Structures are given as C-alpha cells and as structure tokens.
Amino acid sequence: MKISFILNNIIKFSQKIKFRLFFLLLLINIIFIGMVLYFRNYEIKQINFLVFEEKKENEQLLNIIVDVFGKDLAAFAYDYSFWDETVSFIKEPNPDWAKENFETAFDTYNLQHILLYDKDFNLVYSKSKIELNDDFSEKQKIATEKIIKTIKSDIESKRVKNKWFSHFFIFIDNNLFEIKTAPVQPITDSKRETAPHGYLIAVREWSPEYIEKLSKAIIGDIKIEKIESSNFKNHTNSEKSFSFKTFLIISQKYLKNSEEQNIAIVNLYKASPIIKQTYNSFSKQMPYFFIFSTVLIIVIFLFILISFLKPIREIDKALTLQDSKSIDNLSNRDNEFKKIGVLIKDFIKQKKELEELILHDPLTGLYNRRFFSEVILKEATQLAIDKKMILLGKQTRNTHKEQIVYGVYMLDIDFFKKVNDTYGHDAGDLVIKQFSDILTSSVRTLDVVTRWGGEEFIVVLKDTKPEYIRVFAEKIRKKVEAYDFNINKTETIKKTCSIGFAKYPLFDSEPDLIPFEAILSYIDYALYNSKNTGRNSSTEVVPSLLIPTQNDLKEISTDFNIAIEAGFLEFKKH
C-alpha cells in the first residue's frame, strides 16, 4: 500500500511539472509566432498601402501620357481649319491638294495611315506612310490593303456611325493600331445639324518604337498584352500588382475597340524606390527582431533547463539506476522536485526491500525459486542458443562459450525431518542456515545458490568446465559429511546430503535440444535415485551416444523413465 501511495504521488507531481512545461513551451511558441505575424502583417500593410498609392498614381500618369501622345492624332482628325476644303475634296478629289494637306501630315502628326470615306462609306482617299517610300514592296502593299480593309469594316459598325467622333483600337496581325475618326462637315455647321459629307480616319500604329517613346516619357517599361476574348469578364490577367524581386509596380490601362470592348491591356512596369527603401528598412529590422527572439528563447530554454530538465534527468537517472544518490541535489530545491526526491528515495529503498522479500529466501538470504525462474532460466536458455550458433558458424561473439557449460545441482539434506522432530524447528532452521553457508562458501561470486524449498537447494555453476562438474558434487558431499552442525549453543550433530546433478546443455552436438526446465526435472529424478540407493551420495544424469529427435522430446522431457528406457539418458552413481 505504501509503495502504491509513493508511486501515485510521484505521478501526481510529475503531471504538475509536465503541465507547466507544456504551458511554458506553448506560451513561448505563441509569443514568437505572434511577434512574427505582427511584424509581417505590419510590413505587408505598409507595403500594400504604398503599392496601392503608387499604382494609382502610375495609372493616372499612364492615362495622361497616352492622352498627351494621342493629341496630335486628334489634332489632325479634328482639325476644323481645312474641313471645308475636305468636303470639296470628297466631291472632287484633287491629288495636289491631298499631297499638300494629307501627305505632309504623316510626319507632322506621327501618322501611319490616313483614310477618307464619303457619306456612303466609299473610299475616297487612302494613303499609308510606307507608300511614300520609293522602295514600297508588294508585301507591304498587301499588308496595307489588309489594314485598310479591316479599319473600314470596323468603322462601319453601327456604334461608330452614330457617333460624331470616335476613338478606339484594333489588332491586325497582332499589331495594335490606334484610330480616331471624325465626321467631315462644313465649318459653318458647328452644331452638327446636317448629315456628315464623309469620314476622316487617322491611324497610328503602336509600334515598338512608339511604345519605347511612351516608356521613356513615363520612366518605366510598357508592354502590351492582347485580350483574346472580347468578353472582358472572362479575361484573367496573370500579372501581379507588385514584385518583391524587382520592386516593380505593375499598373494597367485597358484599350477598347469600336464596340467598347476591352481588347488589350497596357502594362506599365515602373520601379518603386520608396517601396524598395521601405522593404530594405524592414529587412534591416528583422535581424534585430530575430536576435531578440533568439535571446528570449535561449533565456527561457536555460530557465527550463535549470528549473525542469536538469532535475527531471536526475530523477530519470535515479529511477533507471535505482540509485538515490543521483537526486541528492533535489533536496536543496524548495519546490515539488524536493518532494519528488524524497518520494523517490523512499520508493527506491522500499523497492530494494521488496525485491529482497520477493527474490530472496528470508531464512538463508539465498535467492528463491522466483529469482531462479525469472533470471537463471533466461541465462541458461541464452547459453544454449549461443552454443548452437557457434556450431552453425553464425556466432561471431561469445565464442568462448563453446568450451563451457553450466553445472546444475539439486541437493537435499538427508533425514532432515528427524532434526525438526527431535530438536525442534529452531534447530532445523539452524541446520538449513549452516547448510546454505557451506554451499555459498564453496562457489564463486558468479555462481548461484537457490533455496528451492524446505531442505532442498539448487546450485548452478556458471561458465565451468565439464570435467569439474563431477568434482564439485563430491566436494560438496564431503564438506557436508565432515561438518559439525550446531543445533544450539552446546550441541552439534552430523548430517549428510544427497545430490542429483547434470551438465547443461546435456548434448554437446545439440545444445538447444533439451530445454533447461527438463534438466531440472532430470536432476530431481537423479536426487531421488541418490536417496533410494543409500543417501550421502550423488547421482549424475549422463547422456548416451543416442541423441533423441524432436519427436522424442515431449515424452522424455515429462517422463524421465521413458528417457532411460529409450537409451537416451542413464544414471551414474558417485
């Protein structure tokens, strides 16, 4: 009951410590993770705010730059100053007038194409900038005709016809064109009350050179992304708003066709020195944060080490080695560990006392039958296994066991009952004690002497030579025969003993054939043979040359007479 109480108290206190350790480590993790998340969240908020503001500014700037660069396109298309002449030109085309007013406009207004249609959308004038070059090729002519045809098809849409002025974009062979169209009317019709006499279309190609000019003007990098689907809602732009690798903010402007559908995205990649500086500032602060966190964790770890882990290791060592000296330092602590130390010392002390009671005979102090079954039986079985492995050539260690065996002896005091009947049980106890002293004084420290029960004893000589087994039996018999046993302070008596013994393993060629439990049964038979043939003698169980098979084992291990009759074993009286 007391041992159970001690164990329950140890468990109770250890649970308190485990709870504190768990809570402390959990708190450390929460604090550390919380600090990381706080700083990270703060950094993300700051940068996202800066990205939002700069992206907004860049988009405004992008719109302004595109509008500014597009003003010369509008300046040509919406120029009222020569519309009266243009109305006349539609009625009666004059090549000289076109050359003077239209062809000079290509460089002045940075145009690529000029188209003029009458009110019925018949082409009156068409000219491309590349047509003005002397080396205008057939291939360029085909491309120009395709551009004119596509533009005419696009501007004939109902939406464009119903609008006085239009501004839109089209893609032709993956080339982007910006178009501004204006109705041709007399300058006197400022209110646009009459139907247009025709339509003037100014076309500019967003060539790489033009896009580079836009990029330089905005101090960024512009890239055009075509939207394949005319439905803008189904278009997903893969670009992110910001890149930490390049510190570029991506701003966007959508370009529409004549049907007011998005057909392209202008992506502006513009470096952000402010965000880069902010990010670098955070990056410089993070090492200090990690240093602080590391120092904090080290301090907490040292606290745990000193306050918890070290005493726990001392407790573990004391329980593992069953040595109460390992926890003497705990007595200096004014906490649960001091109480645990006291409980463990009591536990180890009582455990050893309990082991003495459980594994030792209280009268003689020898090992008892329980110890023999739990310890010696396992050791003997392992010896047989090792010897078998050596014979098979598979054992690389313990090869010294090839030449050694165990000597197993069962001894009984002759006519012991007469001692109790004649002199009393106290005298009998004295005889048993003295008999055990004879045995223990005759063996080595590695050998085992066990009180088997009553006046019976078992001696196991470990790691001995086979030829010494018979010598030891005779040595013990003679010692007992010559000994004067005290039965009280003044009287002595003579006693003898009978012995049954054998070597283990019994068969050298098959060391694991006969189990150790069967050997105990065999020497018990041999002991009774000594008793029945005159006492004060020893009988050895000797294996014959005939080795039993596995099929014979069950019968010969339970019935010794069968083993004798079958010729596997024989008695040899000494």
Provide a brief overview of the structure.
By secondary structure, the protein is α+β, with helices and mostly antiparallel strands. The protein is 53% helix and 20% strand. The protein contains 16 helices and 17 strands.
Structural overview:
With 574 residues, the protein is α+β, with helices and mostly antiparallel strands. The protein contains 16 helices and 17 strands. Strands 11-12-10-15-16-17 form a six-stranded mixed beta sheet, sandwiched between helices. Strand 13 and strand 14 form a beta hairpin. The longest helix is centred in the first third of the chain and has 76 residues, at 2-77. It is rod-shaped, with a radius of gyration of 55 Å. It starts with a helix and ends with a strand. 25% of the residues are buried. The model is unreliable at 230-234 (pLDDT under 50).
Summary tags:
574 residues, six-stranded mixed sheet, five-stranded antiparallel sheet, 16 helices, 17 strands, 53% helix
